[in-house]
Design a protein that fits this description.
The complex is a heterodimer.
Chain A lengths: L1 H31 L6 H17 L4 H24 L7 H22 L5 E2 L4 H4 L1 E4 L2 E4 H23 L1 H18 L4 H27 L1 E2 L5 H14 L4 H21 L8 H15 L14
Antiparallel strand pairs in A: 1-4, 2-3
Chain B lengths: L1 E10 L2 E11 L4 E5 L6 H9 L5 E6 L2 E2 L5 H6 L2 E4 L11 H10 L4 H14 L1 H5 L10 H13 L5 E5 L7 H16 L3 E6 L2 H7 L2 E6 L2 E7 H6 L1 H6 L4
Parallel strand pairs in B: 3-8, 3-9, 6-7, 7-8
Antiparallel strand pairs in B: 1-2, 1-4, 4-5, 9-10
Classes of the chains: A mainly alpha, B alpha/beta.
């Protein structure tokens, strides 16, 4: 019972991280048609900011806030410096630009900080387990689920209730007409990147909390998973990104937990088979985006 | 109010509009006629900054060609685009809100929305529904109301009667006249030449990107070209 519940918890918490990452990709894709492969490096930025915060003994909540802020700022900067000059280019050029941004940032991390992982000691409260009656649950997965839920709720409220949130939903459907209403395209795009960066930052904190260290390549695997999640969900669809993230995370953990030992090395093959099956069943993704056009 | 001269628009190799000149007088209804691909929408896109034109566009004495769409709308020009293009997954309320959000906030914005709901009672009934679930006529009303939320002095309407039932078409044309009576200048692009010329003070006819005819509504309605090409008989 304990083990089953713990696995469910792990599945949902990993799914939540993928969901946040996939959302970060989807927010930007839905508006400017860019699949930002530098998204993983935004995670790394947050990871190092957290590392520095802990190194200089900044109180943890402050360090976490700084890390998320740093990722958001980095996202806005990459937009301003790299993607805005390429705004009128086609989707392929934008994609290549994001590879370039990603590679440049990785080199900066490797040469400027260190190619080796830097440990981030976790506060004792997060390393233990939480006792709910007879059941013991890991504190990190539990905290990560709570953080995911709070983030998703906050994002939903932002998109539904605020003018900028509505403008972003509208931009995903028809950016030209939104500009005809006098709403500044550059501002909407900058906010989309900031939001995307903040989501990468939150995911990075949760990712680091499970691993206890940061390294220059830490964002590579998560952003690939996030891309797969976003595609399963329906590229550019925000509810789809969340659904895809949870489906991918839960599938991974379930195979990890219940595959026979001999088959475990092939876990990712099993996971990707599920992905392929989903795409055969629903080629547009679980919850397709309303408008998938334009770059 | 609006003067366009030597206006050309290219999309890559395709020249959509060549050397167009026209004027829209304050308080008038001006009509732009022509078949598909004649350059009507390109003209409107150039005026609103959605297309990058060559040539000169002057609105109330200042050059506006080359400005971004966001800046042109803040000068008092609104476009209600072809095909309505409401935001389908947003509610009627959200569509109207976004229409005015860049120009007003708080109380003023609420007053403007209320004014549109008085003008279009059907939108009050559908207020919290998704715009994509509205009928074609209702979407057209919403698209016009959303454009009016920017409080324009010049309203550009691109094929507002397209695909609508005859009764709704009547409503649209009545609406255009009442907007003009409230002091909003109208530049109307239409395929329904007969109806459009009935309400036009001035008209222009485009063919393959070139201006071929202009005159008052009555003159155009009587011209051979219009009678043969657009009017039955």
């Amino acid at each position: 019972m304990d083990i089953l519940l713990q696995q469910v918890l792990n599945a949902v918490s990993l799914g939540g991280i993928y969901a946040l990452l996939a959302l970060g990709l989807a927010v930007v894709f839905s508006i400017i048609g860019l699949i930002n492969f530098a998204h993983g490096e935004l995670m790394t930025v947050a990871g190092y900011a957290l590392f520095l915060g802990v190194l200089f003994a900044v109180p943890l909540p402050v360090a976490v806030a700084l890390a998320i802020g740093a990722a958001a700022m980095a996202a806005v900067l990459t937009e301003r410096l790299a993607f805005r000059p390429m705004r009128k280019a086609d989707a392929t050029s934008l994609l290549l630009t994001s590879f370039a941004v990603s590679a440049i940032l990785r080199v900066i991390f490797q040469n400027g900080i260190s190619a080796r992982p830097k440990p981030i000691p976790l506060p004792p409260a997060l390393s233990g387990s939480v006792d709910l009656g007879p059941v013991h649950l890991g504190a990190v997965p539990l905290a990560s689920i709570i953080v995911t839920m709070v983030s998703l709720t906050a994002l939903t409220l932002f998109l539904k209730r605020t003018t900028m949130g509505r403008a972003m939903r509208a931009a995903a459907e028809d950016f030209q007409v939104l500009r005809l209403m006098g709403i500044r395209a550059n501002r909407v795009i900058a906010v989309a990147f900031a939001l995307s960066g903040a989501l990468a930052g939150i995911s990075a904190i949760l990712w680091v909390a499970q691993r206890g260290s940061v390294d220059p390549l830490m964002g590579f695997i998560p952003v690939l998973k996030a891309f797969v999640a976003a595609v399963i969900g329906g590229l550019g669809s925000l509810p789809g990104a969340v659904a895809g993230g949870f489906v991918l995370g839960i599938t991974e953990v379930l195979f990890q937990a219940f595959l026979p030992e001999a088959a475990l090395p092939f876990r990712d093959a099993f996971v990707l088979s599920v992905v392929i099956a989903i795409l055969i069943w629903r080629p547009e993704g679980l919850i397709p985006a309303k408008s998938a056009r334009r770059s | 109010m609006l003067t366009v001269s030597e206006l050309s628009v290219r999309y890559g190799q395709v020249e959509a509009l060549r050397g167009l000149g026209l004027t829209v007088a304050k308080g008038s209804v001006t009509v732009l006629l022509g078949s598909n691909g004649a350059g009507k929408s390109s003209t409107l896109n150039a005026i609103t900054g959605l297309a990058q034109p060559r040539g000169r566009i002057t609105f109330e004495g200042t050059r506006i060609d080359g400005l971004a769409p966001e800046d042109i709308v803040s000068k008092g020009i609104a476009l209600c685009p072809e095909g309505r293009r409401v935001f389908p997954s947003l509610s009627v309320a959200e569509n109207l809100h976004l229409g005015g959000a860049a120009h007003a906030r708080g109380e003023v914005l609420a007053t403007r929305i209320e004014a549109e709901l008085v003008r279009f009672p059907i939108l009050r009934e559908r207020y919290n529904q998704k715009a994509g679930l509205l009928s074609g006529g209702e979407q057209q009303m919403l698209a016009i109301a959303r454009a009016l939320m920017t409080a324009p002095r010049l309203l550009l309407l691109d094929e507002p009667s397209l695909g609508l039932a005859p009764k709704v078409v009547d409503q649209v044309f009545d609406l255009i006249l009442s907007l003009r009576d409230q002091g909003i200048t109208i530049l109307l692009v239409e395929q329904n030449a007969e109806r459009a010329l009935e309400i036009a003070d001035q008209g222009y006819v485009l063919q393959s990107g070139v201006l071929v005819l202009s005159g008052t509504g009555a003159e155009l309605a009587a011209s051979d070209l219009i009678r043969q090409a657009y009017l039955a008989g």
